[in-house]
Amino acid sequence: MSEKLKTTFAGITFKNPVVTASGTFGFGREFEAYYDLEKLGGLCTKGLTLEPRDGNTGIRIWETPSGIINSIGLENPGVDAFIEKEWPHLAQVGTVTVVNVGGSSEDTYLAAIRKLNSIPVQLIELNISCPNVSCGGMAYGTDPDKARDITKKVVAASDHPVMVKLTPNVADIAQVAQACEDGGAAGISLINTIQAMAVDYRRKAIVFDNVMAGLSGPAVKPIALRMTYQVVHAVDIPVMALGGIADWRDALEFIMIGATCVQVGTANFVSPMAAVDIISGLEKYCETEGLDTIDAVRGIL
């Protein structure tokens, strides 16, 4: 594998800047039928909570033009089950493991983080941005003071670097990012899904039991680009960008505006090869442009 894509994020070495996004890749096992997970720069786990969650009831995925709306609701086996059943496998995969952690209260966030201190994961992604749960989640990410406070407490409790995942459903994304940096975050990831809803005219009904859900996919990319650009220029910590990245050109655009790494989410549902195809495309771009490293174009815009 080419050294041209080697990237450092929050002191962690990634063999390339391409990471699979939380909630779109499970714990990676299903994708091993298609390629060696070691090809990835990193793998971000399904969002974990202290206790197991069944997720939301009713319809949970709805296709839209250039995207999907999801109302999964952080369905997951819980932190203990992850440590016991999933981590031994992930620990053998030669790539960076990012563990996404959600919560419904300060206490549940901190308890989950303390349990994860027992295993040598490389990076925590603190999810304060999920629009699909009824309590916690996005409530922290829409208020800079609350974002700063929960970040500070999680950083103090964690033995691992903490990257905070931001919601786009705010008036001033830069202000929230700065609050997380003030709280001690080692990095920022953005954007999570955009709050949305759907109506099924045939059933004369709102699609989701929770009414509101989260829009992702190519439709959100221009918004994700704008917010990434704002955050990159507002903080001094690295940014991991996501939102509508479907091919290597999309990934390159985010890198050119200053993203250190990128995450690939909805595209994994379109093609299980999406992430490795993006890696190959970035490698070919570097070769075609005569670049010694992808760093040569990072943040040029």
Task: Annotate the secondary structure layout.
Elements: E1 7-9, E2 12-14, E3 18-20, E4 42-44, E5 61-64, E6 67-70, H1 79-90, E7 96-101, H2 106-116, E8 123-127, H3 138-141, H4 144-157, E9 162-165, H5 173-182, E10 187-190, E11 194-196, E12 199-200, E13 205-206, E14 213-216, H6 221-232, E15 239-241, H7 248-256, E16 261-264, H8 267-270, H9 274-289
Parallel strand pairs: 3-4, 3-16, 4-7, 7-8, 8-9, 9-10, 10-15, 15-16
Antiparallel strand pairs: 1-2, 5-6, 6-14, 11-14, 12-13
Helix pairs in contact: 2-4, 4-5, 7-9
What does this structure look like?
This protein is α/β, with parallel strands linked by helices. The chain has a single domain (3-55, 78-194, 217-297), classed as Alpha-Beta Barrel (TIM Barrel). It is built from nine helices and 16 strands. The strands form four sheets. It has an eight-stranded parallel beta barrel with strand order 3-4-7-8-9-10-15-16, surrounded by six helices. α2 (106-116) runs parallel beside α4 (144-157) and α7 packs across α9. It is globular, with a radius of gyration of 18 Å. The model has no long low-confidence stretch (mean pLDDT 95).
